[in-house]
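Readers of this paper often ask what the protein records in our data store actually look like. Such a record has a labelled line for the sequence and another for the backbone structure tokens. The tokens are whole numbers drawn from a learned vocabulary of local backbone shapes. We quote a single record here, exactly as it is kept in our systems:
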Amino acid sequence: MYITASILYDYIQCPHKVWRDKYGNQEEKIKETNPFVELLWKRGVQHEEKVIRKLGELEDLSEGSLYERFEKTVEAMEKGV
């Protein structure tokens, strides 16, 4: 299980939610995504992109597999990027 910002947020809100998401009865989960939630996700991504653009020039390390992105990140950190 990867730890993401969403998982950390969920844990702060309710530690039990993280456990239920991973080990709880999957049949109880809502299968359809609510259109309002999709709108919130879209606006959240737009906001994050806007904030990142204000930081200045950044190296985009989002392409490739998880391992490739990890390797690129380590290399960039070693270079002080």
Notes: The mean pLDDT is 90. The helical segments are 5-13, 15-23, 35-54, 66-79. Residues 14 and 65 are 31 Å apart (CA to CA). The radius of gyration is 17 Å.
